[in-house]
């Protein structure tokens, strides 16, 4: 089983809205995503998911981390896996060392549960990327990777894999073929629709299942929804300052 939870401090000032502002509209959006994913898998729960995007800078890592938090807050035992071996960031977000991690598990045949580190969030663990490797795509898309994740479902209710952008490298597509579902993150106004369609086509080509698309940085205020949503969240929780 994974080690007991310990305190950790986020590095570089990186924070999680679902932890620091659980009553914010953004945190509520992550909880809605959790509910939608759960309803999409009532008959056969999805235990291994990847979070990816078409290009860099769309917020996939932030989404993976916050989605991990809200699932852990619901009582699930969650492990967020940093499968972005080229530009890992989860160790910075959760403030944990990155001396060992996914590459260690793959190259030294060690279980995820042994290397996953407890975070400051109860029920939430993180498997960092580990030392750099010369062949990330081959490692992530290997049979050993799938075996690692499948074995880890004995210790965790949910495994969330943060992967590189699909247009940039092939890692995410390789992993999409092995996982139960894909959460696709799109930063509105920055990626052409044709690029998004081509990216989704790559996932479908390997029989990956897209469970949902997350629109990041969408300005809902222009349609009046922002005010209504804020008013609903505020009235439901009350004024946190009181």
Question: What would you say this structure looks like, in words?
Answer:
- By secondary structure, this protein is an alpha/beta fold.
- 40% of the residues lie in helices and 15% in strands.
- The protein is globular and about 40 Å long.
- Residues 4-13 and 223-242 have low confidence and may be disordered.
Brief sketch in words of this structure:
This protein is of the alpha/beta class. It has helices spanning 17-20, 25-39, 60-73, 90-94, 102-108, 112-115, 136-140, 143-152, 171-176, 193-205, 225-237; strands at residues 48-53, 78-82, 117-118, 124-127, 158-162, 181-187, 210-216. The termini are far apart.
How far apart lie the N and C ends?
A: 41 Å
Biggest sheet statistics? 7 strands, mixed
Number of strands: 7
Helix share, percent: 25-40%
Give, in order, the helices and strands: HHEHEHHHEEHHEHEHEH
Tertiary shape: globular
Beta-strand content estimate? 5-15%
Detail the poorly predicted runs.
Answer: 4-13, 223-242
Task: Please tally the helical runs, counting DSSP H or I stretches of 4 or more residues.
Answer: 11
Major beta sheet, strand line-up: 3-4-2-5-1-6-7
Our Rg estimate from Cα atoms comes to 18 Å
Mean pLDDT: 82
Query: Structural class of the helices, strands and pairings?
Result: alpha/beta
């Amino acid at each position: 089983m994974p080690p007991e939870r310990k305190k950790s401090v986020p590095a570089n000032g990186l924070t999680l809205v679902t932890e620091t502002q659980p009553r914010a509209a953004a945190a509520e959006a992550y909880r809605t995503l959790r509910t939608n994913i759960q309803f999409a898998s009532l008959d056969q729960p999805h235990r291994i998911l990847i979070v990816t995007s078409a290009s860099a800078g769309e917020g996939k890592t932030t989404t993976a981390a916050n989605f991990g938090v809200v699932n852990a807050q619901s009582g699930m035992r969650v492990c967020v896996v940093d499968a972005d071996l080229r530009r890992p960031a989860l160790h910075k977000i959760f403030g944990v060392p990155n001396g060992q991690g996914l590459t260690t598990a793959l190259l030294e045949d060690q279980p995820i549960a042994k290397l996953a580190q407890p975070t400051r969030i109860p029920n939430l663990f993180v498997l960092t990327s580990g030392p750099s490797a010369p062949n990330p795509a081959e490692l992530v898309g290997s049979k050993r990777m799938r075996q690692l994740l499948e074995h880890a479902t004995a210790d965790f209710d949910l495994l969330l894999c943060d992967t590189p952008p699909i247009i940039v490298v092939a890692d995410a597509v390789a992993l999409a073929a092995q996982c139960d579902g894909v959460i696709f993150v799109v930063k509105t106004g920055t990626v052409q629709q044709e690029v998004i369609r081509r990216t989704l086509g790559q996932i479908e080509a390997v029989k990956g299942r897209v469970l949902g698309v997350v629109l990041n940085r969408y300005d809902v205020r222009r349609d009046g929804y922002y005010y209504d949503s804020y008013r609903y969240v505020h009235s439901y929780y009350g004024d946190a300052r009181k």
